[in-house]
Amino acid sequence: MRIVTKHLRILAPLLAAAAFAAGCGGSSSDSTTANDGYGAPAKAAATTAAKAPAAAKTAGTTVEMTNTTFQPQSIDVKVGDTVTFVNKDEIAHTATADDKSFDSKTMEAGATFAFKPTKAGTISYVCLFHPGMTGTINVSA
Known about the structure:
Elements: H1 2-23, E1 32-35, E2 60-66, E3 69-71, E4 74-78, E5 82-87, E6 96-97, E7 112-115, E8 121-127, E9 130-140
Parallel strand pairs: 1-7, 2-5, 4-9
Antiparallel strand pairs: 2-3, 5-7, 6-8, 8-9
């Protein structure tokens, strides 16, 4: 009985850590989603990962998820511009607005998510799996 208890003290924390790590990525049946910033589907959102990152203040801006960061971390767009998130990391991420104006849900490696802001203001967002992974979208009229 002592040997079993001793092994359980060692094995239990390792199994718990492995289960937590396995659940960190989550899953999703829809890895490419587009909406208008308020939950409704966007009509013509650009969601191709092949598109090169655009400079800030253009009609479309790409934010890459790489090395557990959003790159660029802060972008400037206009109302109606398309913001496309591309997960170039090997692990799952989300792009979730603090004000609930958008939520990509779980994005597995290679997935994209696009939305169009409909009002001016600052939108802060985070990866729900990695709370230190944050970004800001500055939307002008």
